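Morning F.,

Quick status update on the modeling queue. The single chain you submitted on Monday has been processed. Sequence for confirmation:
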Amino acid sequence: MRFCACAALLIILSSCATSAPSPREFVSRNPRLANLQRAATLPWTDGGRCAVREASQPWPVLVEKCYRTLDPDRIEFHDTTGRCSVASADAAAVGLGFCVLAAPEIAVGAVIVLGGLVVAVAIQEALDAYELRHAYPEEAGTSRGAKVSSREAEAQRKPKPKPEPAGQDWQPPVPPVPVDRTGRASCEPVPVPHAGEDDPHNECADRFPPNRYPGMDVLVGGVRFDALQVGVRKLWEIKTHQFDTYNDYVRDREIEKEIKQLNKERKAAAACGYGFVIGVSTQAHKDALQREDRSLNIVVTGCKR
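Structure tokens below.
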């Protein structure tokens, strides 16, 4: 009840506040982008997931929905304008900070973040995705306003391919490959649903690099990769075979098959300016691959099946 009272109070305060932007206010023709940029300056306990989910709402609504996911130990609020002093004593613990943060403009010194700030992962991913869409005009539609569906949405609408009994590294038919203006496969990373339903493999791909697009593979240069690492230009192929349990003959055939696949993926990654890393579960698997090709960048993940 106290939180609801604060929300009602905030609506009144916001409607009375001046709409003139201060020099520190985020200005953008895209309200969602402006909200993401504003949220990126704050410490969140949930990695920014709530802020991303509510970013299309007006900023006061985002604050109302996500205020409780702020890190209270790393943020201080100061009512420098006196506007929020009308908050009741019963709601002071929540009301003051809530009111200060959700104002159309934030006065200098009103919100202080303690310690170094690292942008929350979910917010950084959303900002990166926005930049990618606008780096490739064909993704956003023509300047005359024609609407073009995003590749992410199109990929997510496609039904997941049915798993084959051949194993976790069976590669289903690749969805239609996005192309650039020259007609070549695009180097823009395009998220697509994980291939198959091998949960241990997919969890390793999401957790270990870690994956910029959890729950998704990524198409780059017409080739499917298990993950694009957060914060760097590195594409990953994840192997979670129980390689140590295979007999010598099966091991040899498996390594032959993998070397062909990995060379194809490494070539596509390099052509688009990405690094390429292979994650394997055991040292024995890494040793077997490197006996065939010492130049491969292989990491032992320790992921279990």
